Amino acid sequence: MPGFLDYDFLISSLDHYYKFVSGLFMEWINDSEGVSNIIRWARNYYSVFSYFYKMTSEVQTLWTEIRKTAAQSNIFVLDRMKELSLIFETGKYEADLFSNLAGYTKNVKAGHDQFREQLVNSTKQISKLAESQRLYQLIKF
Fold first, then answer.
1. Region 107-130: what's the mean pLDDT?
2. So where are the chain's domains?
3. Who contacts 27 (Cβ-Cβ below 8 Å, separation ≥6)?
4. 123 touches 41 (CB < 8 A)
5. φ and ψ of 73, to 5 deg
6. Taking the CA of residue 115 as centre, how many other CA atoms within 13 Å lie in the half-sphere pointing to its CB?
7. 28-48: pLDDT as tens digits
């Protein structure tokens, strides 16, 4: 891929591993709807809430859930990368199409979607609680 890779690794299986893993986690890491971006937004929502609104135990619980989900998603990624590193290290893959690794593609997509949904739901709840407090303040005054 000219213009994309600046260099090759000394071992071709490492080049193949990098190519496969980069594509496998592209949505997760680089997409606007990816888990990494959603985690950043969740942190921003929590920070804004904690600055402008009265902190509640419900928001604290949601923040704990978000942090737990983020940690679980990190472990998920690292586990898949470790499993794949062993496959690529032993050469048990098809270098051209990676077709024997289709199960990993499906597994990572399902994991991404599950973690993303959990993060989005918790973040939406924080947003709803902020809106409730804002409306209460408007009605109160």
1. 97
2. 12-140
3. 33, 34, 109, 112
4. yes
5. -65, -40
6. 28
7. 999 999 999 999 999 999 999
